[in-house]
Amino acid sequence: MAASVLNQPHFHNEAAAYKWVEARVWPEGPVCPHCGGTDRNQPLKGKSTRMGVYKCYDCRKPFTVKVGTVFEASHVKLHLWLQAMFLMASSKKGISSNQLHRTLGVTLKTAWFMSHRLRLAMQAVGLPPMGGEGKFVEADETFIGKWEGVPKRSRGKDYMNVVFTLVERGGAARSFHVASTRRYDLDSVIVANVKPESHLMTDELPSYRKIGKTFASHDAVNHMKEEYARRDGDRLITTNTVEGYYSIFKRGMKGVYQHCSEKHLHRYLAEFDFRYSNRVALGIADEARTERVVKGIVGKRLTYRPIDGNA
């Protein structure tokens, strides 16, 4: 029987965890996060020296691989961070803070904060537009959230958060928290994230009609008439791919996380986008997906005060 992935040294040994992270964050050797120096960085080996500390002899400042990353200023052992990272990256519908709290042996508050830092690491930045010539991009919108403080008689979609998602068939997903499903709220997202050479697939929402004319083609299925897919020559006109993304997203949000306030929704979207865009169907297994999270930790900081406030 194959050994558990979590038996690997970096998941239960602090020194091995530092070496594992360093090899991925600094593939060509230590880089000083203070001055960017690479030539005069040496490990400190004194008996009272903290684990993983280097000193830059250009700027004379000490540092570890955690500085300038989502791990900075955290007192949680690095191997526990890696366990949490693997569990989040490999759980298709996510893993709750309560489960992390019990599994890792940290407080619930710490587990909640760790999971938000890791969602930030999963957040993609600076991506080029998706699609292109011969590529199909599906767009759809959904509603998520609870009606906090709203009387039952008044509840409806007007009181829910609007999520808008673009999925390239056979590729990645990108989700956004938008103000509404009106044209002017969707157009800017589509223009910034989809190449005009793409073939756009949507449902019958009127908001897509004008923007659809700017793409190589625009086809829609009419869900109101229970039309979910049809053929046009060799083209399959459907939004089933993005609907499949939403089926995973909603099962995770309702079944695992159960509730998400509006101010944190963008990080949950980043988490589900990351796992979908780095899924097994694209040749990315759990361990490789975890390594991709590590590559996203650099240059991102999240402190407790803003995250618990309005960030």
List the helices and strands and how they pair.
Blueprint: H1 14-25, E1 41-43, E2 54-56, E3 62-63, H2 78-90, H3 97-104, H4 108-122, E4 136-144, E5 161-168, E6 173-178, H5 183-193, E7 199-202, H6 209-212, E8 217-220, E9 229-232, E10 235-238, H7 240-257, H8 265-277, H9 286-294, H10 304-307
Parallel strand pairs: 4-7, 7-8
Antiparallel strand pairs: 1-2, 2-3, 4-5, 5-6, 9-10
Helix pairs in contact: 2-9, 3-4, 4-8, 7-8
Question: What's a quick, concise take on this entry?
Answer:
The protein is α+β, with helices and mostly antiparallel strands and 311 residues long. It is built from ten helices and ten strands. It folds into two domains: 5-125 and 294-307, no CATH class; 136-282, Ribonuclease H-like superfamily/Ribonuclease H (Nucleotidyltransferase, domain 5, 2-Layer Sandwich).
Overall residue-averaged pLDDT value? 92
Task: Give the domain tally.
Answer: 2
Spatial order of the strands in the main sheet? Answer: 6-5-4-7-8
**What is the 3D shape?**
elongated
From the 3D structure, determine the CATH topology of the largest domain: Nucleotidyltransferase, domain 5
Range of strand content: 15-25%
Number of strands: 10
CATH architecture of the largest domain: 2-Layer Sandwich
Name the CATH class of the largest domain: Alpha Beta
The value of Rg in angstroms is 22 Å
